[in-house]
Every structure is written in C-alpha cells, then in structure tokens.
Amino acid sequence: MYVDHAFSISDEDIMMGTSYTVNNKPPIKEIALAVSLLVCGVLGIVIGSLMAYNHVGGDTAHGIFFAVLGFILFIPGFYYTRIAYYAYKGYKGFSFSNIPPV
C-alpha cells in the first residue's frame, strides 16, 4: 500500500519547525474596519427600511436596495466585531489572530 507523505503533517514536523510567539495585541485597522462596517450596515438597514416604508427618497425599491446593502455590510462587521470583543474579554477560543489582516 502506497502512502504519500508529502502533504501530511506529523508531530515530528510540528516539533521540528521554527518556534514562534503568538502576537495577541489588537489589530487597530482591522477592528476599525469591522466597527465601521457594523455601523454603516445598521444605518443602511434602518434608513433603507424607513425609505421603503415611508417612500422617502424614491420608490420602495430604493429603500429595499439600501436595506439589502446595509445587511450585506452588517454581516461581516458584526462577525469580526464580535470576534474582537470576545478576544478582548479573553474568552476561550477567541484571539485577535482570527481577524484577517487588511
């Protein structure tokens, strides 16, 4: 039976690698981007819903468009802001390294 070990990771590979330290300081730019996406998303949902309901700034389609755009901005903003908050509070399993660099 042939086993290709070229792409396997064993305990020896992990032990032989270079040592590294975990940098767990908060990434300011990434957190600022996440918070701004969250705020813009909430504003887009609220303003879009008001536009669609009250027919302000055009017809209902414009309001629905802004609400959907706000929802698209809200999802990653909420996700990464939540990760940053939990990492700041020190919850197990959450680290600032889980936030991708900008």
Automatic annotation (TrEMBL):
Bilayer topology annotation: Multi-pass membrane protein
Keywords assigned: Cytoplasmic vesicle, Endosome, Golgi apparatus, Membrane, Synapse, Transmembrane, Transmembrane helix
GO CC, any one term: membrane
Compartments in which it is found: Cytoplasmic vesicle, Autophagosome; Cytoplasmic vesicle, Secretory vesicle, Synaptic vesicle; Early endosome; Golgi apparatus, trans-Golgi network
Transmembrane segments annotated in the record for this chain: 31-52, 64-88
Family the UniProt entry places it in: Belongs to the TMEM134/TMEM230 family.
Role played: Involved in trafficking and recycling of synaptic vesicles.
Protein name per UniProt: Transmembrane protein 230
Taxonomic source organism: Glycine max
Lineage: Eukaryota, Viridiplantae, Streptophyta, Embryophyta, Tracheophyta
